[in-house]
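Researcher: Next entry in the queue.
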Amino acid sequence: RFEIQKLHRRLKTTSLYVTHDQVEAMTLANRMIVMNAGRAEQVGTPMEVYEDPQTQFVAGFIGSPAMNFVSARSDGDGHVALDGVRARTASSAAREAGRPVIIGVRPEHLEPSHADEATLSGKVEMVEMLGADMLIHFAAGAGTVLARLPHGEQPQIGQPVHFKAAPDRVFLFDPASGERLR
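Model: Structure for this entry, 182 residues:
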C-alpha cells in the first residue's frame, strides 16, 4: 500500500484500483465506490463512506471490525428497543412507533456506561486483548456485539456490561431493503 501510494503521488495521474480489501480501499482511495453484486452502493471519500453509510451492506463492509447490527423496533419517542436493547438515535424513523429496524453501531463508538443510560447491555462472552486496545464480545438481544475499548481494566467472562453510543452514531437500516433510514 505504501509503494502504491508513493507511485500514485509521483505519477500525478488518475488511477483506478480494484480491491476486495476494505483496508486497502480506505488507505489508498481519494474517492471510492463500494460495489455489491455489480451495483454501486455508495460513492464518496473514504471518511464520507465510513461516517455516513447509505446502506447496511456499506456499513458492514467498511470498518474493522465490522459494524454491529441488532434487530429492533422503534417505540415512537426517538428510541428503538427489543430484547434488552434500547437506543436513542438521531433518525426520524425512530418516531414511527412499532417500525421494525436494524440498529447499526460501530464497535469503536461504544463506551462503557451505567445500565440506565446504556445503548447495549449484555454479558461478556469473550475478550480479545490486542495490545493498545481490546475487543469485548458480549451477548445483546439475539446476537453478539463487539465493543472496542482502549487498553485497561479487562471485564471477566459472564460479567454484565453496559455500553452507550452518541445518538448520531446509532444508525437505523430498513430490514427489507437495507437502506439507511434518516
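Model: The helical segments are 2-11, 22-28, 46-51, 56-61.
Researcher: Noted, moving on.
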